[in-house]
Specification:
The chain folds into 2 domains: 228 residues, Alpha-Beta Barrel (TIM Barrel), CATH 3.20.20.60; 28 residues. Helices cover 41% and strands 14% of the residues. It has 11 helices and 8 strands. Strands 1-2-3-4-5-6-7-8 form an 8-stranded parallel β-barrel, surrounded by 6 helices. Helix 6 links the parallel strand 4 and strand 5. The protein binds 3-methyl-2-oxobutanoic acid (KIV).
């Protein structure tokens, strides 16, 4: 199989739908990759799903790097994209290049993702000038929740929708290879998708996007926190795991485990 690169993802527009997922550890990344998923995001959502923080803001570059390294060790074909965490790229282009460089050099990622619209164009250009492909992210941007006031559908009004279309075009012009659109009305997801020549990857942005992304814990039914409307659970691993733990505990208490076949 030919490995997925940022330029191959960009060229997939109008050719195939892209199925993308997050992953945060070696074993899961390996399975996701073996399933043929084209793009794996080491999302800063790991702050919540893996580390138990209440939102994505506290996660550090070192914590994200630790997980990025684990993921890239498990992946052969998918493009691994590392999310740059809150305040690790916003201060200056130099800061963004230095942080992103660590994810490429030390983490083994093939690209980075940053949140924000038109105002992020200079950062995108600086990263590209230094050979680092960038995935954009507009709509609901969880790193800005303190400014925007929470996890709400974006782009509902005409002015807001028009601004998001402008943001998408500005990021495309700056050079992002694809664009995550989070939590906007389905019609707007389609409108942005038609307005740009790069693939759009929706999460709560409707079926007209060029691809979709989900948080792997949501898809597997592993995360017990709030589940947004856009999540589809494809498995209920949380309850399967809990049952397995309870059965193991009971068997240990009753002396049923280990049995003869588990003993030397
Ligand atoms: O951190 C993350 O998992 C993300 C996806 C929701 C796109 O940014």
């Amino acid at each position: 199989m030919t490995p997925w690169t940022a330029s191959r993802i960009r060229a997939a527009k109008d050719r195939q739908k892209l199925a993308c997922l997050t992953a945060y550890d070696y074993s899961t990344a390996r399975l996701v990759d073996e399933a043929g998923i084209e793009l794996i995001l080491v999302g800063d959502s790991l702050a919540m799903t893996m580390l138990g923080y209440r939102n994505t803001l506290p996660v550090t570059v070192d914590e994200m790097l630790h997980h990025t390294k684990a993921v890239t060790r498990g992946v052969r074909n998918a493009l691994v994209v590392a999310d740059l965490p809150f305040l690790s790229y916003e201060v200056s282009s130099a800061q963004a290049v230095a942080t992103a460089g660590r994810f490429i050099k030390e983490g083994g990622a093939g690209a980075v993702k940053i949140e924000g619209g038109t105002f992020r164009a200079p950062v995108v250009r600086a990263l590209l000038d230094n050979g680092i492909p960038v995935l954009g992210h507009i709509g609901l941007t969880p790193q800005s929740i303190n400014k925007t006031g929470g996890y709400r559908v974006q782009g509902k009004g005409a002015a807001d929708a028009a601004r998001l279309v402008r943001d998408a075009k500005a990021l495309e012009k700056a050079g992002v290879f694809a664009l995550v659109i989070e939590c906007v009305p389905a019609a707007l997801g389609g409108r942005i998708t038609r307005a740009v020549k790069i693939p759009t990857i929706g999460i709560g942005a409707g079926p007209k996007c060029d691809g979709q992304i989900l948080v792997v814990h949501d898809l597997l039914g592993l995360y017990s926190g709030v589940s947004p409307r856009f999540v589809k659970r494809y498995a209920a691993l949380g309850s399967t795991m809990k049952k397995a733990f309870e059965t193991y505990r009971r068997e240990v208490q009753e002396g049923a485990f280990p049995a003869a076949e588990h003993s030397y």
